[in-house]
Amino acid sequence: MELQDYPTLYRESDSSAINAQKRHFWLVRAKVALLLVIAGVASIAWSQEPNLRTSAAIVLAIFLVVSIVLSAIMDMRKFDRVWFSSRAVAESIKTESWSFMMKVEPYDGTISDSKAEERFLNRLDKILHLQPSLCSELTPYLQQGPLITNYMRQMRNESLENRRTYYVQSRIHDQRSWYAKNAKWNKDREALWFIITWILQLAAAVLAIIVIGFRDLIINPVGILTTAGASALSWLHARSYRELSQTYGLVTQEIALLEDRANKASTEEKLAEIVLDVERTISREHTIWLARRL
Fold first, then answer.
1. How far is CA 128 from CA 7, 8, 133, 139, 188, in A?
2. What's the pTM?
3. Same domain, 233 and 285
4. Backbone conformation region of residue 145, classed left if phi is above 0, alpha if psi is from -120 to 50, else beta
5. pLDDT at 213 over 80
């Protein structure tokens, strides 16, 4: 399913989540870079260069002020919270959209299309109000539509076989591939940053021993490496590579089993059961992700 086929509100909340995530991690990277620069400047033995001592102190003060400003921006703008809330809204809308198209409760085929659309709009309104911090930003899009696209209406009116085939290919298989790819990606990144962290810590320990025998060194790299190691560890924790790899791997297995069952769904009831199981699996993963982040 193409992005333009989803409700406008989904596209806006998805875009909000992506932009907030980028800004959050940009600030994190900038703050880490500043800390490394501060550690580097502070590690130089300025006492051996009296003429540069004042300049070094000014540089340190400037970088410390910038670091404080970045921290203040992170606290005030709370891009991480906007990211989490926007992603929660986007994924909830996506789940409702697929349920609507597949005629799953509360949009089952026993009610008219107009009634189903009314329920869909009511659910969108409730989803927004569950995230009050985003409500004021995204509510205007409730009037700018389309909140229910023509493609969604068209798919809802397709035959059982066509809807089942489309759901398997565009939802189940798509999500299975996404989770499998990201499980591997997070596993690889976790291993990479784990190695980097230990290399930096080991290098700091070795240099600390070496520095003991060279007391006249102008620069002491131990502080830089220690700060870099701590920063790498903080980054590893911030990105939650291990937790995401494990969770995504589990979801991939569950969706794979559901895909086999979905291919055999021959009635509306069985298709609805599969859709509910798939959407619950995906929703559970996002709920766990959000709870860990918050």
1. 14, 13, 9, 7, 35
2. 0.83
3. yes
4. left
5. no
